[in-house]
Specification:
Blueprint: E1 2-10, H1 14-32, E2 35-40, H2 45-51, H3 57-65, E3 68-73, H4 87-97, E4 102-108, H5 121-124, E5 128-134, E6 144-147, E7 150-153, H6 159-174, E8 179-184, H7 190-206, E9 211-216, H8 217-226, E10 233-236, H9 238-252, E11 259-263, E12 269-273, H10 290-302, H11 307-322, H12 338-351
Parallel strand pairs: 1-2, 1-3, 3-12, 5-10, 8-9, 8-10
Antiparallel strand pairs: 4-5, 4-11, 6-7, 11-12
Helix pairs in contact: 1-10, 1-12, 6-7, 8-9, 10-11, 11-12
The chain binds 3-isopropylmalic acid and manganese (II) ion (MN).
Manganese (II) ion (MN) binds near residues 242 and 246.
Length: about 350
């Protein structure tokens, strides 16, 4: 197939990790006979420097004309909290512009020789969960106000916003182990009470085969550490999902491993690692590209419908991790570079039998 992929490398380590994902996608194209066309555009700090805007109109236009968007990361000390225009506005902006309300963040434990997690092996063994984070509502998008001694961030959710993301999560749970955990703070927040009511209604009526549990976000944070392998699909609002997925990333060993897919009603999706721009290590070729590589696999699966190709890339990634091809965040003794990881995945992928 022919597909146009918008490439938004962004800031910090973004360009380094996206370059490896492009390498992998080119290998997929040559192995399976596809034609992927990459079109690059600016977002975040680099876009602010060039145009004064974190999300230039050309970038939005390019994304809308593409089949999928692959993004690196945005942000950096140069455009800190005091700046008038912030790189993060570019990321929130493109998610909103493309209507990408569901953010899928899978967390798996990958066995590797260096046993790189901070957990006892028996705790993380078998962890295979998926967080579906609501992405275009809640406190990140509500009204903001700042007075001299007072500030406000409003959190709002409509019934329709909850329904569509819960439906998406429920559908995904149906194709997995059929367990859905909805996370809220219904003992305090009005938006959470709405969230819980809508979730109950949608799931009981449309997905009676699912096992549904409701957890308060504080308890969920604890259970993610205590019994992580008991989770299948977790669905939650924007900020809770943001926080819980950074926590959950530790189950896999490094935040650098975690991919994400942001989806809306159609096929167009945005794919990015969940980590940030890591300005402290930018430009040194040592960033972990696995999260972006795994995001590229999600791109193949969800936007291009290329399941076989996605599975092959996932397999090459698992093998490479198992072979101990790891960057400094996961391996102290002679860690490998970003591009060594990329080349390892490329070679493994090209050598996989085509089924
Ligand atoms: C993430 C990031 C972003 C978010 C920031 C950079 C806007 O933390 O993708 O998790 O909060 O969504
Ligand atoms: Mn985050």
């Amino acid at each position: 197939m022919k597909a146009i992929i918008a490439l938004l490398p962004g800031d910090g380590i973004g360009p380094e990790v996206t370059a490896e994902a492009v390498r992998a996608l080119r290998a997929v194209a040559s192995k399976f006979g596809h034609n992927f066309i990459f079109e690059e555009a600016d977002i975040g700090g680099i876009a602010i420097d060039k145009t004064g805007k974190a999300l230039p109109n050309e970038t939005t236009a390019l994304c809308k004309q593409s089949h999928a968007v692959l993004l690196g990361a945005v942000g950096g000390p140069k455009w800190g909290p005091a700046s008038k225009v912030r790189p993060e506005q570019g990321l929130l902006g493109i998610r909103k512009e493309l209507g990408l309300f569901a953010n899928l963040r899978p967390v798996r434990h990958f066995p590797s020789p260096s046993n790189h997690t901070v957990f006892r092996p028996e705790v993380v063994q078998g962890v295979d969960l998926l967080v579906v984070r609501e992405l275009t509502g809640g406190i990140y998008f509500g009204e903001k106000r700042r007075e001299a001694t007072w500030a406000m961030d409003a959190c709002t959710y409509s019934e329709a916003e909850v329904e569509r993301v819960v439906r998406k999560a429920a559908l995904l749970a149906m194709s997995r182990r059929k367990k859905l955990t909805s996370v809220d703070k219904a003992n305090i927040l009005e938006t959470s009470r709405l969230w819980r009511e809508v979730t109950e209604r949608v799931v009981r009526k449309e997905f009676p085969q699912l096992e549904l549990e409701h957890l308060l976000v504080d308890a969920c944070a604890m259970y993610l550490i205590q019994r992580p392998s008991s989770f299948d699909v977790i669905v939650t609002e924007n900020m809770f999902g943001d926080i819980l997925t950074d926590e959950a990333s530790m189950l896999s060993g490094s935040i650098g491993l975690l991919p994400s897919a942001s989806l809306g009603e159609g096929r167009l999706g945005l794919y990015e690692p969940i980590h940030g721009s890591a300005p402290d290590i930018a430009g040194r070729g040592i960033a972990n590209p696995y999260g972006t590589l795994a995001s590229a696999a999600m791109l193949l699966r969800y936007s291009l419908g290329l399941e076989k190709e996605a599975a092959a890339l996932d397999e090459a990634i698992s093998q490479s991790i198992q072979n101990g091809v790891l960057t400094a965040d996961m391996r102290q003794a002679s860690p490998l570079s970003t591009s060594e990881v990329g080349r390892s995945v490329e070679t493994l992928l090209l050598n996989l039998p085509v089924v």
